Amino acid sequence: MLEVQALSKAYGKKQILKNLSFSVKPGEVIGLVGENGAGKSTLLQILATLSNPTAGTVMLNGESYQVNLKKTRRQIGFVPQDIALWDEFTVKENMIFFEKLSWKHKNGDELRKLCYDMKLSKWNESVKKLSGGMKRKLNIAVTLIHEPNLLLLDEPTAGVDLKSRKEIGAYLSNLAKSRGKMILYTSHDMDEIMQLCDRIYCIGEDPFYYDVLQKYGERPVQL
Ligand SMILES: Nc1ncnc2c1ncn2[C@@H]1O[C@H](COP(=O)(O)OP(=O)(O)OP(=O)(O)O)[C@@H](O)[C@H]1O
């Protein structure tokens, strides 16, 4: 379980996140929505241990980020908004490279299966020749090598066509439901958020997203 208590973040005098408290249970997919600049990426970066909050606490499966950073880090997978892959390497070479950096050992067949499960079949293709959607899938696959319990995804389907979007959505949903992963992800696509997420958290003070979601019949949680 992920437990966030009274979390705040300021950059200098600019307050971005104000006193957020929420939790995520195993098997849950949470959608984070909010206007540009509301602080969605900032929140994911804090939950990924890449940035420190100004105040507040985060606990992952009973371990405090503040007290046991190494142990919590091993349980987290973070997919950044920007694709972070080796362009000149093939899909296979990227998977092998990231496996070497990983905390868990995986053999070639296991690495290949991670890609195939996401319908990413171009194992020997160089990344520069892949479509945007394929790159996004590979970006997710490398993050799953160490089998994180908490998966944080920053706009994983941005610029992805509808078919790949559905494939990524189905894969993430299956990860949560059959393997109990906790997933937090951001998107500006309301239909996708509605289909995929068990709960929706709105960040920021602008009531726009809250109102839109209510019109869809959803009851988002205002953070
Ligand atoms: N390192 C930083 N230093 C100063 N300000 C920052 C830094 N990182 C982010 N910000 C500011 O924090 C605010 C929140 O940014 P963030 O990227 O978290 O928003 P977001 O909700 O993810 O936006 P988007 O939907 O455009 O991705 C913005 O005003 C941004 O300019």
Automatic annotation (TrEMBL):
The keyword Transmembrane helix does not apply. GO terms for molecular function: ATP binding; ATP hydrolysis activity. It comes from the Bacteria. Pfam families: ABC_tran. Keywords: ATP-binding, Nucleotide-binding, Transport. Residues 2-221 form the ABC transporter domain. Belongs to the ABC transporter superfamily. PANTHER family: ABC TRANSPORTER ATP-BINDING PROTEIN (PTHR42711), ABC TRANSPORTER ATP-BINDING PROTEIN NATA (PTHR42711:SF5). This is ABC transporter ATP-binding protein. It comes from Lentibacillus salicampi.
